[in-house]
Amino acid sequence: MKSFIDLIKAIFAAIFGGKATVPKPEKSADEPVSGEPKWLAIARQDLGVKEIAGPEHNPAVIGYFRDAGFPEIDDDETAWCAALVNSCLERAGYSGSKSLAARSFLTWGKEVTKPYPGCIVVFWRNSPRSWQGHCAFYVSETKTHIKVLGGNQANSVNITEYPKSQLLGYRKPSTPANSRTMKASTAQMALLGVDGGIILESQGQINIIGDLIGQIGVALPTLLVFSILVKIVLQCIIIYARQDDAKKKGV
Predict the structure, then answer these.
(1) Which domains does the chain have, with CATH numbers?
(2) How far apart are CA 67 and CA 84, in angstroms?
(3) Pairing between β-strand 110-111 and β-strand 167-172 as defined by DSSP bridges
(4) What residues contact residue 208 under an 8 Å CB cut-off, 6+ apart?
(5) 83-102 pLDDT per residue, tens
C-alpha cells in the first residue's frame, strides 16, 4: 500500500512540477543475497523438486539420499529433509551429519548464535523431548516465524516458515575437509599421481584453498580479481601435473 501511495505522489510531482523519483521496489528477504554460502545457492537450484505421487519416485529425491550416504534408499516417501541438507552440504564440499535424523545436526558442526542465510536450522516436531524434528536452511525471519528453504516441506523443496517456538538451534559447518564428495575427488586424483602425485593427491586441499580464496574475494571486492587469478593458477598446476604424469606413463 505504501509503495502504491509513493508511486501516486511521484506521478503528481511529474505532472505539476518538481523532481520526481519513482520508488524502487524493495528486495524480498527470500531472494539470493551476495556472498551467501555455496550450499544455499545449490539448494535454491533445487526449489520446486517434489515427490511423485503413486508408485513412481523422483530421481532427484533419491539422489539426495545417495549424496547423504544412503544409496540403499530408492523411494521418495522416506522422510528426506535431512537428506536434502546433507546433499547440499556434500555437493558444496562440506561434510554432512551422516544421518537422516533432522536432530543429528544439533551435534554437528558449530553453534550459531546469530543466524544468517544458509545456516542450518533445527526445529522440534510433536514435542521438544521427542526424537522427531525438521532441518532446513535459514532464509529470513519475522517476529514470530523463521523462513527456511528445505526439503520434504509439503513433499517438496520450497521456502516456508515455522514458529520460533519450535526452534532448537542454529548450526554451521566446522570444516569442509571431510566431505564425502571431496574424499571421492581426492581418491580419484590419487590414482593419477606418480611423480606428480603430491600435487594430484592434494587436489582436495587445493580445492579447499581455492574456495577459501573465492570467499575472501566475495567478502573483499578489491581482492576479487586477485582471488580469481590465484584459483586459475591452482587449476593450471593440477592440469600440468596431470599432463606430466600422463606423458611419463606413456599415455
Answers:
(1) 1-26 (no CATH), 38-172 (3.90.1720.10), 180-249 (no CATH)
(2) 9
(3) antiparallel
(4) 93, 176, 177, 182
(5) 999 999 999 999 999 999 99
